[in-house]
Amino acid sequence: MLNDITFGQYYPGNGVIHKMDPRAKILFTIAFIVLSFIAGNAVSLLLVTFALGAVILLSRIPLKMYLKTLKPIIPIIILTSIINALYVSSGKVLVEWQFITITSGGLLTAVYMSTRIALLIMCSSMLTYTTTPTQLTDAIERLLSPLKYIKLDVHSLAMMMTIALRFIPTLIEETEKIMSAQKARGADMENGGLLKRIKALIPVLIPLLISSFRRASELADAMECRCYHGGKGRTRIKKLHMGLIDLVSLIALAAVFVGVIFANACLSGVLYSLFIGGVL
Amino acid sequence: MEPIIQINDLEFSYTVEEDATPIPLFQGVSLSIEKGSFTAILGHNGSGKSTLARMLNGMLLPDGGTVTVNGMDTTDQDSQLAIRKTVGLVFQNPDNQIVSSIVEEDVAFGPENLGLPSDEIRKRVDHALQAVDMLSYADHSTNRLSGGQKQRIAIAGVLAMNPSCLVLDEPTAMLDPKGRKEVLDTVRRLNREQGITVVLITHYMEEAALADRCIVMEHGRVLLDGTPNEVFAHRQTLEQTGLTMPAACQLAYELQDMGISLEPFPLTEADCIAALEKTLSK
Ligand SMILES: Nc1ncnc2c1ncn2[C@@H]1O[C@H](COP(=O)(O)OP(=O)(O)OP(=O)(O)O)[C@@H](O)[C@H]1O
Ligand SMILES: [Mg+2]
Fold it and tell me: Is the pLDDT at B87 greater than 90, yes or no?
C-alpha cells in the first residue's frame, strides 16, 4: 500500500532536463503551473499540454513513470470534475433531472480542471524525477537565501528537507515492518470504524516515533563525525550554474506564455460562441 | 613504528542523570594504535568498546588522562576538525549514517563540510567510491542498496575526507554473511593497499583473527592485548569472559583435549583445513 508512492523519486538520467539548473527548474515548474491555471480555453490549455509533452519527451523518462504518479490522484480528479459539472452552470443545459442540472459549460470546466490537476502533478513529478533531492534542497536554499536577512536559518531548513527526503522511504519501510509485526500479534488494522482503525495505528506509531528519535541521534553523531558544523564554509560538489539550456528554456517558456495569453484573449470569444453557443 | 593514536591513563564516567553519581567506565586505560596497523577490539556487551571508539575522534572527551591523534589533543577545540578528518568513524547501522538520497551526494557530504572546491570534491568522491568498489552506483538512490552496499557507502563517505585512520564500530553487526564479507574485504584492502590504519570493533572472532592485533576489553579495562595468536592462546580467560573463539580455534582446542595437536595453531578456516590435512597425512 505504502509502496505506491512514486512521487518524489529521482530517476537517474543524462538528458537536457537533468542538466538544467535546479533553481531554473523550480521557477519554471511554478511558472508552468500558474500558466496552466491562466489558460482559459481549450486552445491555450492544449498549448500548455503540448509544451509539457515536449518537456516530458526531452526528459527521456518513460511516459509510464509520469502516468503512474496520476494514479493516486484519480479520486481527486473525479471529485473535482463532479463538483465542477454540478455547480458551474453556463452554456446549454444538457441534463436536467430533479435537482441536478448539467450544462455544457460545467462539463467543459470539469475537463479543464482535470487537465490542470493532471498537468500540475506531472509537472511536479518531472521536477522531482530529474532533480536529486540534494539539488532540489540546494536550489531552495539558494532561492530563499534573501530570507537570511530576516534572520531565517535557510541552511538548516534546507538540511532538514534533505534529511526528510532521505528518510521518507526508510520510515515507510519501517512502518510496514512494524505493521506486519503487530498484525502477527493479532492486531486488526483493516476492519472496523474510523475510530477503531485510528486506534489500531497507535501501536504502530509509537515504536516508529521511538525509533525515529534513535535514528536522529545516530545520524547527528555520524554527521558530526563527518565534520558537519553548520552551513558556514560549506561548499558543494555540484555548483549551481545557469547555462545555455536554462536560457533556451526561458525563451521557450516565454513563448508558451505569450501563446497562452494570445489564445486566451483572441480566441475565447470565438470558441465560446462556437462550442457552447453553437455546436453544443 | 610511531603511533597515530595515543591514549594515556584515560578516565571516563557516564552521568546518566543530572546530580546522580557518575558511573565510572574507564579508570586509567593506556593504549597506542600504530600507523598502518589493523587492530581488532573485542569484548562483551557493555565492556566499553563503543565508548572507546568515540574517544578516538573527540566525539567524547576524557574526564582524566589524554587522547592524542597525531599529536593533537582531542580536548583542544581548535584541532577538532583536523582530528575528525584524521580519524573517521563508521557506525553499526548503515541506514542512520547516510545523509543524502543519492550515493555520490552522500559521499560528498564530508568533503563539502571541509569547504573543498567542487572539482577536488568530485575527485575525492570518485576515488572513495572506487576504493569501496561502488563507483558504478554513483548516481543510484541510497535507499535501494543492500545492507553491505550501504555500509560500503558509509565507509566511502568517511574515506572521502582522506582519513589516515578508520574506526569501525561493529560495521558488520546488521549485515548478512554476504554483506559482512563485502565490508570486511573492503576494510582489509584499504588497510593493505592504502596503508589506512584500521580499528575494527567486532563481535565476530573470525573477523578479529584477520587483524594484526587483538584487544579484548572487559568492564572498561584491557583484558588481553596481542596478536590474534597470543590472544586466542588464553583459552581460559576468553571462556570466562564468555567470548566464543573462532570456529577453527574451537576445533583445534577440542582436538587438543583429545590429544591431537594441530601445527601451526589455526585461526582461520583456511589455516585449519591446511593444518588438518598436514596432521592427517602424517
Ligand atoms: N549514553 C550513555 N549514557 C549512560 N551510560 C552509557 C551510555 N552509553 C553507554 N553507557 C554505558 O557504558 C557502558 C559501556 O557501553 P558501550 O556502548 O561502550 O559498550 P560496548 O562495548 O560498545 O557494548 P556493545 O557490545 O553492546 O556495543 C555500558 O555499561 C553502558 O550501559
Ligand atoms: Mg557498542
Answer: yes
Does ligand 1 lie within 6 Å of residue B47's CB atom?
Answer: yes
Of A12, A133, A235, the CB nearest to B117: A235
Q: Please give the model's pTM, rounded to 2 decimal places.
A: 0.83
Selected residues 104-123 of chain A with any CB under 8 Å from a CB in chain B: none
- What tens digit of pLDDT does each residue of B243-266 get? 877 788 888 888 888 888 777 778
- A187: its cell numbers: 492486531
pLDDT at residue A279 is higher than 50: no
Contacts 24+ apart (CB under 8 A), B172-179: B172/B202, B172/B204, B172/B207, B173/B92, B173/B202, B173/B203, B174/B92, B174/B93, B174/B94, B174/B147, B175/B147, B175/B148, B175/B151, B176/B147, B176/B148, B178/B146, B178/B148, B179/B146, B179/B147, B179/B148, B179/B149, B179/B151
- In 3-state terms chain A splits into helix, strand, coil percentages (rounded to 5) of 75, 5, 20
C-alpha cell at A235: 561548499
For A24-81, the pLDDT digits (tens) are 999 999 998 999 888 878 888 899 999 999 999 999 999 888 888 888 889 999 998 8
Atom 13 in ligand 1: residue holding the nearest Cα: B46
For residue A216, pLDDT beyond 90: yes
CA of A7 to nearest chain B CA: how many angstroms apart?
Answer: 14
Render B168-234 in DSSP notation, one character per residue.
EESTTTTS-HHHHHHHHHHHHHHHHHH--EEEEE-S-HHHHTTSSEEEEEETTEEEEEE-HHHHHT-
Domains of chain B as residue ranges with CATH? 3-94+156-233 (3.40.50.300), 246-282 (no CATH)
